[in-house]
Amino acid sequence: MYRSLKNILVACLKRNRELPVARFLEKFQVILEKSNETLHLMSDMNDKLGGEYVFDLHYIEESAEKLDDLLLKIISEIKIITHHHTLDLFPAFERIQHTIQEELAGKHVLTSEAMVLPLHEVTDWQRDLVGGKMERLAGLSNHLGLRIPDGFVITTQAFFQHLQHSDLENVIEEAKYRLDKNDEDGWRRLARTMRKQITDTPLPRKLVTRIHQEYDALMERTNRNNLRVAMRSSAWGRVARQVLRGSTTHN
User: Fold this and answer.
1) Is the pTM of this model over 0.70?
2) Are 176 and 169 in contact (CB under 8 A)?
3) Alpha-carbon distance 85 to 81, whole Å?
4) Residues 210/114, Cβ–Cβ less than 8 Å
5) Are 65 and 147 in the same domain?
6) Do residues 144 and 241 both lie within one domain?
7) Do 233 and 126 share a structural domain?
8) For residue range 129-178, what is the model confidence (pLDDT) as tens digits?
9) Residue 41, C-beta contacts closer than 8 angstroms, at least 6 positions apart
């Protein structure tokens, strides 16, 4: 990182004609200091994730806010010493900031790649994303070298994206407060509403695109056209119980 900053310093000094050298070096010193603070904060967060420390959501939110302030200051100083030649840094920063804020708010932010994964890319730590069966199936091939049918996984992230797309999350949240836990008829009606809304709502376009892309890639890997596939869905009962318990805000 410091090597990159040194390169920026040399390049900027060569082309800088308006900012006095003393002022320029002052700004660059601020960039170095804020970069150092950023690295220390990121290192502290990484240590917390190691499992030896107890922390809560407040710590994460506070750390994210500090990182926002530090990075915004760094970008502002870089913008000054480069005479606004780094305007694209602000939009990139805002996109990342928005994604983090949505994640902290409990919304599911995901890339289109995370919604569909080929089996050969599934790793041991992705059980929550692909389910236990797919994780074990992928492990047979990826770790033991056994031959298994090729395929891909439509992930739990895609499922929750569809819940948001169909506004079903709001239906579930409202039901938690309206329904008594012993009202079996009420929960049955809610289940029917959930099923109908899920099946009646078109899939998000980027999910459909990713499914088509993975299907095309599967045909290419198997050298077959119009490939027939078998589908194995997760048990709806287990997923429904997780959703109704509020897992939509944590997975």
Assistant:
1) no
2) no
3) 9
4) no
5) no
6) yes
7) yes
8) 888 888 888 888 888 888 888 889 998 888 887 877 777 777 776 776 67
9) 63, 66, 67, 70
> Nearest to residue 67, comparing CAs of 38, 98, 29, 45?
38
Hey, CA dihedral for 109, 172, 60, 33, is it positive or negative?
A: positive
The size of the chain, in residues, is: 251
Q: Which residues pair with 116 in a beta bridge?
A: 154
Give the rounded distance of the alpha carbon of 160 from its chain centre. Answer: 12
Considering the domain architecture, whether residues 98 and 147 belong to the same structural domain is answered as no
In this structure, are 32 and 71 located in the same domain? yes
Task: Please name the residue ranges forming H helices in the chain.
Answer: 2-15, 21-47, 57-81, 89-104, 112-115, 127-130, 132-142, 156-165, 168-178, 184-200, 205-222, 236-245
Taking the CB of residue 135, how many other CB atoms lie within 10 A of it? 19
What is the pLDDT at residue 9? 53
Pseudo-torsion of CA 155, 160, 162, 164, nearest 10°? -160
